[in-house]
Every structure is written in structure tokens, then in C-alpha cells.
Amino acid sequence: MHTPPAADDGPWIRRFHPCPDSRVRLVCLPHAGGSAGFYLPLSRAMPGTVEVLSVQYPGRQDRRTEPLLDSVPALADQVFGALLPWTGRPLALFGHGMGASLAFEIARRLEREADTVPAALFVSGHRAPSAPRRDTAHARDDDSTGTRPPGDEEVLRMILPSTRAADYHAAATYAWEPGPPLRSPVTCLVGDGDPKLTAEEAAAWAGHTDGAFTLKTFPGGHFFLTQHSTEIVQLMAEQLETPVRA
């Protein structure tokens, strides 16, 4: 059985609220342009039975001097490797926006290469991999991307040029390669006013798993999850109470 690092969680993982007696670990993947700190409120609100591991991509905050990665597969390979020491307990994955595609690719790697079926895959604010559309966010200016979270405008102005060049490029150029469906259950969370996602694109996630599929719609736009954090935490915590059978 793998055991996690005792003192150093490594460059990829942030544990804002360590829970040594947790039953499951929830790995949170940020949106394009996001950082691990985006999930600090979620980590704070999650019950002690669920330990939140928030992923920190290179090129931001304490990793700002590291080169950015500009493809979903490259990110997935790196995060997958970083998660292997944490597979001693059940892992669940949660990704918003680009993080949803990344969470899906990591789940594929866990099942295929580590014989580990995630306890759950939560995908938020993003279309299914099999429902591609042309996305040119990486080529547009900062105000027209339509997917910026609430935050400090000056900080956003500083980080968006570099993150757009990498994260938005990764999101826009991600191409799904057909393969066996996941065995883990998939829950898709969407905002009913999200301009980047249709109901059909969200429902298409059902075709990517042989497990249970749930589609949950909330009022709001692309960042609906900031307005409904309490409901979303409750939803995930309830689902993670039931272990998944491989």
C-alpha cells in the first residue's frame, strides 16, 4: 500500500486542512488560469471524513518560476504520477472547466495504469470529452474569455497573459482519444446560464462511464459553484459516504 509523504506533500499537492483519519481523499483540479487556493473554501467546508488534496499547477503562486504546461495530457501525466503515493485510501476527483478534462484523463490513468477505480468523478462547468467544440479563449483578450472567477482585478491582470498562453491553450487543444469507459461513477455539475456549455454537451458525460451518472443543474453562469458552495459540498460529501465497488 502506498503511503503519502509525511512532511512534504511535494510541489503538486496542497493540503489546507489535513485529515489523517479521513475515509477518502478528494483531489481538486483548478480551472484554466486557476490555482490550488481556489479550493480553500471547499477544503474548509468539507467534513473530516474527506481530505481535500488541491492540485497546484506549475507557473503560479509558489510555483511561479516553473515552466507552464500547455497540454491536458502533459498535465494529466504529471498529476497522475504525483497522486500515486496517495492511493492508499480511496481517491475521488473534482475538476471545474479545464480541470474537468484533466480529472477525466487522470481517472483514465488511475484505472488503466494503477488499477485504481476512483470513488467518484465530479466534473463541473465543462462539456464531455466526446462533445468537442472550437474554443479560441487562448487567443482572445482578458475581458472576453467569459470564464474568469470573481477576484482581485489587478492580480488577474498580472496572471492572465501567461496562464492564457498555457492553460487556455491546453483547454482549447484537448482532443479526446476514444477508449474504454470509466468504471467510476460520474457526476456532472452545471450552471443553467453557462455560455460555454449546453445541456446536450453536459449529458454526454454519461457515455464516458459504465458506472452511475448524475447530472445536477444549478442557477448561475460558468462559476455557479462559488454561489452554491454549500450545496455542492453537501452533494459530494453524501456521495463519498458510499464506497464504490470496482
UniProtKB/TrEMBL annotation:
Gene Ontology molecular function, alphabetical: hydrolase activity
Matching SUPFAM superfamilies: alpha/beta-Hydrolases
Record-given protein name: Alpha/beta fold hydrolase
Residue ranges, annotated region (Disordered): 121-153
Classification via Pfam families: Thioesterase
Thioesterase TesA-like domain: residues covered: 27-240
Entry keywords, A to Z: Hydrolase
Family statement: Belongs to the thioesterase family.
Superkingdom to which the source organism belongs: Bacteria
Membrane-crossing residue ranges in chain numbering: none
GO terms under biological process: lipid biosynthetic process
SMART domains, sorted: PKS_TE
Keyword Hydrolase among record annotations: yes
Biased composition (Basic and acidic residues): 132-153
